Amino acid sequence: MPEVGAHDVGPCQKVDDGMARVFQLFGKRWTGLIVAVLLPHPVHFADLRRAIPGISERMLSDRLTELGAAGLVVRDVDEGPPLRVSYGLTEAGSALEPALLELGSWAEKHLPGSPQCPSELRK
Fold first, then answer.
1. C-alpha to C-alpha distance for 123 and 120, rounded to whole angstroms
2. Gene3D superfamilies annotated for this entry (predicted)?
3. Which fold, 31-122?
């Protein structure tokens, strides 16, 4: 019979509920990048899409809707003319900044390669 070590997980141990909820939202592609772009200030939809190469309008819209439903992002419509929609972080969304900056620092130290614009995530 193998020895039971300090790092063995028993059959009844479960993942922390809070951590599961975080990764249910942030485990989706693009979500973290959207929040990172919105950290400094609200951004118009078109500018947000340009800031995240490779994301489609539909995917950006879907992720913004999910972030809004989670209470992290607020949508602001400027009737114009022209009509412009911008997105900004709520207080709860802004509270993610220390965690996201810490993840960025961890990535620089432990993940090979470098992002296209590492300084952009630190603003």
1. 6
2. Winged helix-like DNA-binding domain superfamily/Winged helix DNA-binding domain (1.10.10.10)
3. Arc Repressor Mutant, subunit A (1.10.10)
Domain boundaries, the chain: 31-122
Rounded to whole angstroms, the Cα distance separating 60 from 52 reads 9
Contact yes or no for 121/97 (Cβ under 8 A): no
Measured CA to CA, the distance from residue 84 to residue 77 in angstroms comes to: 6
> For the segment 8-37, what is each residue's pLDDT rounded down to a tens digit?
556 667 888 998 999 999 999 999 999 999
Backbone angles phi, psi at 61, to 5 degrees: -60, -45
Distance in angstroms (rounded) separating the CA atoms of residues 62 and 60: 5
Query: How far apart, in whole angstroms, are the C-alpha atoms of residue 34 and residue 51?
Result: 9
pTM over 0.85: no
| Alpha carbon distance 114, 109 (integer Å) | 10
CA distance linking residue 101 with residue 98, whole number of Å: 5
